Amino acid sequence: MNLDLIRKDFPILETQVNGHQIVYFDNGATTQRPLPVVNAVVDYVTHQNGNPHRGAHIFAISASEAYDTSKEVVRDFIHARSEKEIIYTRNTTESLNLVSRSYGETHLKKGDHILITIAEHHSNLVTWQRAAEKTGAVLDYIYIDKETGHFPEEELKKINDPRVKILAFAQVSNVLGVEFDPKPLIKRAHAHGAVVVLDGAQSTPHKQIDVQDLDCDFFAFSGHKMCSMGGIGVLYAKEELLDEMEPFLMGGDMIETVEEQTTTFAELPAKFEAGTQYVEGAVGLVAAIKYIQAIGYDDIRAQERKLVTRCLEGMKKLPFIQIIGPKNPEEKEGLIAFEVEGVHPHDVAQIMSAEGICIRTGHHCAEPLHHYLGVNASCRASFYFYNTEEEVDYFLDKLKDVRKVMGYDD
Ligand code: PMP
């Protein structure tokens, strides 16, 4: 992997802040878009733009082609069986809402259990609170071991309860950085017929996904966290589930025939994609997938592992830094959440920002996890393949001084 060449594809990384070159460590929130992705979108908009699946003119056809072929690329990317199983949404959040509304709220009954983990992002938590409220189902949690960040066996046994009808969890936590090995959990849930919803927002950018091998029932991810444009996300679902589900949105292009009082719905995946499709987003997603595949996940992971290792080693030398979740680089998928003793995370972020360093602070949309861990808020540095070890060193150097800037003597 030629990092110098790769970084040329990201002119935004040349941005200067107060005389310092930007260090972008907020990739868990959103990644930057490389020129091949930007150019693919510009090329589509400049030469091919039309409204897909409507009309017979040249641009209706080129838009339809761009849109429909993008589904083949996404299907292949996550190894789904059929393009019918690939639904475009705005992002992971919308994908999870689609599952919760169109599957959860129509299949759950009073007394059923929805099982999620305490480490969930709000998009995989508030959605299920609502489904529980609407149906009378019970929302139950799997709690992590506070020291290791993993699930103790006692907690995992909750999955075996036959009242659990839906198990939903993030493959990689956006705070702990841990990957929860999904396959054994999925097997347990399937043993008594529960369906499994995987939130792949933080896993898909960093590792090869194979939905057939995972055997999950639903899988959600966002384009913008993997070099694509914002505003496009994916919901994968097994065809047999989508077939029996109600559409989430009603409108154009999701119908077969419409009478005054009745409608029959289109075939999959159109049934779940009402309204004019976001073709620019689909084109950008394809370009992002091709970009990532050209680099290869092996190299992506090797670079991230290098950065995480160096950063953790440096942080461990700073006695006032508390790392959240596991401290072993092998267990961190490209991100490190931490606290600086005696300094509010927002102050840390402000000080870092003045030095050109972008990190995230707050709850990271995982408020119940922060409460459970007894942490008010935290900082998070999250990496992607275009980050460098020099950037990590610069970050550590500035982190060392944060307490001094706040008036501490050390
Ligand atoms: N799940 C996880 C684990 C996430 O990290 C995020 C984004 N922070 C989401 C879901 C939601 O993604 P989006 O905002 O793209 O819908």
UniProtKB/TrEMBL annotation:
Belongs to the class-V pyridoxal-phosphate-dependent aminotransferase family. Csd subfamily. GO terms for molecular function: cysteine desulfurase activity; pyridoxal phosphate binding. PROSITE patterns: AA_TRANSFER_CLASS_5. One of its GO terms (biological process) is cysteine metabolic process. Keywords: Pyridoxal phosphate, Transferase. Pfam families: Aminotran_5 (PF00266). This is Cysteine desulfurase.
